[in-house]
Fold this protein.
Amino acid sequence: MIMSFSKGSVRSGNRAAKDLIADHGGRVTRTRVAVIEALQIAPAPMSHEDLGAALAADDIPHDRVTLYRALDWLVEQGIARRIAGSDRAWRFEVVRPDSHRHAHFHCDRCGRVICLESLQPSSAVSLPDGYQLDRAELVLHGACATCGDGPGSDNDPGQH
Ligand SMILES: [Zn+2]
Ligand SMILES: [Zn+2]
C-alpha cells in the first residue's frame, strides 16, 4: 500500500491582505488592501510614486496623504518594511513571514532597488563585545546587471 501525504501548508509567503490587516487590529480600508496587494506582487520594492501609479491603474481612488498614511500604518505594524534609497525616496516591500531580513542593492543608474535575498545584513557586521544587535539595514550601491557593462553581464546591448 502506498501512503500518500498531502503537502502540508502551501509555501506561499503571501497572506490575504484583509486577514493581515484584521490580524493587526486595523481597519480594512481599500487603500491598505490595494497597497498590500500591489507590494505582494511587485518583483522589487516600490516607491510612493510606483504605488500611486499602481493604484491609479487599478482605478482605486486615493490621494498622496491617504497613501502615506496607509504605508506608515503598514510599516508601524510590521506588515511592510521601508528601505532607504539614495534619492531620498523610500521604497516599500511586504514582510513575508518566512523571510529573514535581507540586504538591498540600489542601482545608482536606473534607480531600482533590488532585494538581495541571500545576503543577511546581520552577518555582515561584527560588533564589539557587549553589544547586541536587534536589527541591521544594509543597502549597497552601484550598477545593476542591466545597467552595468562590466564582465559577467549577460546583457548584450545590441540584442533584445
Ligand atoms: Zn540599473
Ligand atoms: Zn527586499
Summary: Confidence is low (pLDDT under 50) at residues 2-12, 155-160. The chain has four helices and six strands. The longest helix spans residues 64-76. The first strand starts at residue 46 and ends at 47.
